[in-house]
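[Meeting: bench + compute handoff]

Bench side (C.D.) handed over the final construct sequence. Compute side (W.E.) agreed to return the predicted structure before the next meeting so the bench team could plan truncations. Sequence as handed over:
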Amino acid sequence: MCCVGVMALTWFAHAQQSMETRDPQPPPTEGSVTPHNPVPSVAPDHQGAQTSTFDPAASIDQWPWKSSTLTGDWGGFRNELSHKGIALAVNATLDLANVLSGGQRQGFLMPYLIDANLSLDTQKMGLWDGGQVFVDFQRAGSTQLGSRYIPDFWSWDAIYPFTQNYTSLSQYWYQQSFCEGGLRLKLGKIDANADFCVSYPGLQFVNTAAYMPGVVVSEFPTYPNQAGGFEVLMKPAEWLEGKFGMFDGSTNWYDPSTGTAHSPSGGRGVGNFFWSNPGSYFLIAEMGPRWTVNNLAGAWNVGWFDQTGDSLEPTSSVSPSPPGQQEVQGPWGLYSSLSQELFKPEGATDGQKLVGFGQFGWSDPNLNASHWSLMGGASWQGIFPERPTDTAGVLVAYNQFSNDPSLTVSPGDGEMIVEGFYEIQLTPSVGIQPDLQYINQPSSVSGASVDDAWILTFRVSISF
């Protein structure tokens, strides 16, 4: 039954971020990655693409080998908190990466991400129906600056924070559901990639290309630059979903007083969205149907984005803009995502399936360094019957740069990515994932003579 009242909530929080030893140009955005997560990280609660929540049902009396968390149920206390609407989760992802050949240099580096989050369900807490409070803290870094090895556009490692030291209160938001979940309003500091540009929830690829189209890389308010804003999430029918979001988009805002880009939104809170924004907002909307045929689910989304205000369009996610580049109108564009379950073995658990997915993006080449991008791939959990929780995946992606030399130092060139992985699920809380990437043209500077790169990564994911 649809809600008949509207509740007002005044909420203010202060976010502080520390970044040291940065790359030459702080990136406007980073990809969204899902560390090992036995619970869906996006649906149904949409906590965020870098997060997962505690699953009490998978932890009771099953520690250590079958528990969904390494620290178990804390003698029943964790499960008790969950039933009272308080969920705590801590996840760690460590990438042992080795550039085998190509790139600017070869060698070993080690990006990592630690994510700790708290979710409060107001209904279970006995307060009011349909409310959720979410707070997320992230600590990340790398032993070396990744751009010194692979100065690519899309970002070859989605947990790499473009710095050797990153600490952030990355998300804090309140969500209120109405009409039995048919309408949800979210307000606060948000990772937009939790709800927008998601080709398929729960993917485990290392490269950022799996998580967003190349045309939004420069502006998207996602890790490590989550931003203040609001979202309207609608489900008018079981087969149809629609979404709209408006965020602080001033990470790349051109500041005429300095002639440079604004500071990243990840270091600011909701105040820069509400009362101190220079007129730079990131708008995004998408809509599409869902279906199930022969017990195989599929989804299709069509989306639009627009960066308002003047923007200093970066030519690379890691490189400074060309000398003398002037500000341009913020880019806009379109994108589409498609996913389809292709096969489920008889008697399979909910996670065992073969899924195909893809994403296409287009943007005005007079305003965006990326003209268009295309990505497609497949992920198969339980490819071997004796290993039902292991997952294998393959991905191919391509980004075409604009022909405008004032926007990119690679006019007319492109960047291609091929990736494959196999995640070995040692326990429900611990996974080890060998991953191999090939990147053609791994530099946004076409004349830099950077050889095609091969990157071998061993990802270790732990849910505490």
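W.E. noted at the follow-up: The chain has one domain: 18-463. C.D. will use this when planning the next construct.
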